[in-house]
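Appendix B. Chain record.
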Amino acid sequence: MPTRILLSLLIALPATALLAQPPALDAATARMRADLEVLTSAESAGRASLTPGSHAVAQYLVGRLRDAGLRPADGDAYLQRFDLVPLHLDRERSSVVVRRGSDEQRFAPLSVAFPAPTSPVDLTLDVVFAGFGITAPEFGYDDYAGLDVRGKAVLVFDHEPQEDDTRSPLHGAGFTLHANAWQKTRTAQQHGAAAVLLVTEPINTHRTAPRPPERANAPAQALVAGALGIPRVTLPADAAVALLRGTGRAPADLQRAIDATGRPASQALPGVTVSLRAVNGADATPQPSWNVVGLLPGTDPRLRDETIMVTSHYDHLGVQQGRLYPGANDNGSGTVAMVEVARQLAGARLARSVLFVSFGSEEQLMLGSYHYAAHPLRPLPTTRAVLNLDMVGRNEAHTPESEGAYEITAGRSDQLNLVGAAYSPDLAAVLRQAAPAAGLTLSDKFDRESSMRTLFRCDHLPFLQHGVPAVWLFGGFHPGYHEPSDTIDRVDFDKMARTVRLTVEAVKALANSDAPPKFRY
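C-alpha cells predicted for this chain:
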C-alpha cells in the first residue's frame, strides 16, 4: 500500500480511538492512548525500518509535532533523512584466512561490520594483539601503549578487563563505554589500524537462556555512510587461538594475566597475517529512513543556541512469518510520551532550546541516532543533556535472560530506571529531584551490572560516546519483549503519565539552569 494512503488511514484513526476511550481518562492519557492506537494499528504494520508502515508513522509524527507548535528542525523540514542498505553476509564469498609461516587456516566470520556496505572488504594485513582494545586515560589504562598498529589488523577481546569485579576501577561490575564494539572500532581507527578482529573474551559469565519461540530480531541494515572507516570482523574462538599460537599462550592465559594485574598484555604477532574477505549479499540499493525532528526555540539570547534533547524511537519489528509485532511498549510508549512532553511544553518560555527527535531504525542497532550524532542538527558541544524515552509503559518483570542478574520489585508503576546516569551525576540529580512530584522512584541498577548489556542497547549511547550527558528512561525488561504480545492492552498508561511529568519538569530545570550538567568519564 502506498505511504500516502497509509498516512490517510493513520490520520483518520486518532479521532476514532479517542471516541472509544473511557470517560475517566484525563486529557493527556487520552491523547497518548489515541496516538498509541495509531502506532500499533494493523495499518502501521509493526513500523519496521524501510517499510511503508514505518514511513507513514514518521509522517504521522510530523503532524503531531507540528500540531504541538514545534518548528521544523532540519531547515524547513521535520524529517532528517539517512540512507540505509539491507545487510546479508554472503557466507560463500566471505572468509578469514590466518597465515603464520607456511601454515594456513581458514575460518568463517561470525559477523562483519562493513565501513561501506555497498563495497566488499578485501584486505591482507599484519596482525597485532591489542588486549581489550581500550584506550582509557581516565582509568589509567591503555592497550595501545607502545604498540604500532598503523595499517594493521588488531585482534581484541570483547567487553573489558575485570568486568565482574565490583572493585574494578573500570566502573566496577558495570560497563564503561570502552567495552562497546563500536567504541573499540573507533579507538582502533584513531590509532591508525586498518581492521578490527573481535573475539568473545574466553573467560566470561555471559548470560544465556532459552529464546522464546516468538522472540524476533530486526532485519539487518547498515548506514550507507557511517562514522567508522574500517571493518570489524567478529571471529570464532578457534581463529583467536590460531592467531595467538606463536605467543606460546592461549587466549584465556592472556586474559587471566590482564585481569589479574590490571595491566595490558598487548604485543605484536611477528609473521602472522590475516586475509579478510566479506561481501554483502543483499540488494545494496540505498533506501531512505527518517528521524522525526521538531524544535522548541529557547527565549534567552545568551542560551538559546544551547540544546536540551528529548528523544525516542518509533520503529519496531514489522510483520514476520505472518505475525504482527505491534511494539506497544517498544517503543510506541516512549514515542507517544515524547509527543505528549512536546505538547505540555508548548508555549513555555525556556532559556535553552529543546529539540525533540524520534529516531528511525533503532532496532537495527541505533542507526538513526548514530546518523544524528555524526550529522547533528544542532552542535553536540552545546547539547547539554539528552533524555531518551524507550519502553516506559510496562512494569518490570523478570525474563529468562534476566532472572538472577539483578533485584527488582515487580509490578510497580512508580519505578523507572536511569541508564547511563553514571556518566553525568549532575543530570541524574536533576531527575531525582523531579521524581517525587511525578510519583516515581528511580534506579540506576543497570549502570552497576553488565550482564544484560543495557548501557549499549538504546539511543542514548551515541550521545554518551560523544561526551554528551544522556540518560535512558527505561521501565525495564518484561516478558513479551520483542514478541507479538507487546500490545496496547498491556500498557500501563499511569506509568507513562508519570514519566511524562518527570520529563517535563526535568526539561524545564535543565533548560533554565545556570549550570548545565557535566559529562563525567
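Further analysis of this model is presented in Appendix C.
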